[in-house]
Amino acid sequence: MRVARGELWAGRALLLALMVITILPFISIFTTALHPSGTVPSGLDWPASPQWGNFVQAFKVADMPTLLLSSSFIVLAVVPVSLIISTMAGFAIGLLHIPGANALLLLFVFGLTLPFTGIIIPIYFLERAMHIYNTRLAIVLPLIALYMPFAVFWMRAHFVNLPSEISDAARVDGASTWYLFWLVHVPLARAPIASLGILMSVWTWNQFLLPLVLVEDPSQRTMAGALGAFQGHYATDIPLLCAGTLLLLVPTLVIFILFQRQIIAALLQGAVKG
């Protein structure tokens, strides 16, 4: 299909405008972080004497090594468990067609519509009653539950599109349901599982509201959640706050650069399957 020259240039202009709108805030944060500590910079003003030491100071003040360990622990606790449960559920609903599969699918789709901010208060009181408030478990368990609707829907979309001949051939050879799942369909689902794992890892790493509400100790939060405590201590020191913000963004940026193809493939796959 041929695209008119005017339409082509309009599309490029729109993409350029969106790119500028996206990048400008980061440039502003970066230039602000280079100003002397305690000053109030104005916009994109480049400092006469860049204070690169602000990043070193923010690294020490925010206790970045502790936050890295805490975030890594939460990601490693949430993502594998979520992948195992969602893959099993997606297999059962999409391929085995268990009794009540459609009702279960509707239940998970309903879970996608629940507003996150609307259920965080009940989660808070529930964790108070369970005595897991202010622990990493207070973040891990809700995240696993909150990821289930999307994750199950994602994996079900993969299994429901597989040809039934694969399962029939395995059944003829005497494969049990467990064998069919682990040794036949899980290897075939490596791509969607990997894509889902990357997405959930990034979402968990960037989780802000849940750690901020359910964990008081900043060292028990994710890096994004610890930013709330950092902001509370240094809200008046704008350059130091901006330096800390950029440091907290670095791990996510590295993950995106390393796995950008998988992330893009995951988003495209989610858009065309259903």
Task: Using brief descriptors, characterize the structure shown.
274 residues, mainly alpha, 13 helices, 77% helix, MetI-like fold, globular, disordered C terminus
In short:
This protein is mainly α. It contains 13 helices and no strands.
Textual characterization of the structure:
With 274 residues, this protein is mainly alpha-helical. The protein has a domain of 187 residues: MetI-like fold, CATH 1.10.3720. 77% of the residues lie in helices and 0% in strands. The longest helix is centred in the first third of the chain and has 33 residues.
User: What is the CATH domain class of the domain at 63-225 and 249-272?
Assistant: Mainly Alpha
What is the average per-residue confidence, as pLDDT, rounded to a whole number?
85
| Major sheet summary line | none
Helix content: over 70%
Per DSSP E runs of 2 or more residues, the count of β-strands stands at: 0
Element string (H = helix, E = strand): HHHHHHHHHHHHH
Q: What is the strand content?
A: under 5%
Low-confidence stretches: 270-274
Annotated CATH topology of the domain at 63-225 and 249-272: MetI-like fold
Could you name the CATH homologous superfamily of the domain at 63-225 and 249-272? MetI-like
Radius of gyration: 23 Å
Number of helices: 13
Gap between N and C termini: 26 Å
CATH 2nd-level architecture of the domain at 63-225 and 249-272: Orthogonal Bundle
What is the global morphology? globular
Secondary-structure topology with pairs:
Elements lengths: L4 H29 L19 H9 L2 H33 L4 H13 L2 H15 L6 H23 L4 H9 L4 H12 L1 H16 L3 H6 L8 H11 L4 H21 L1 H13 L2
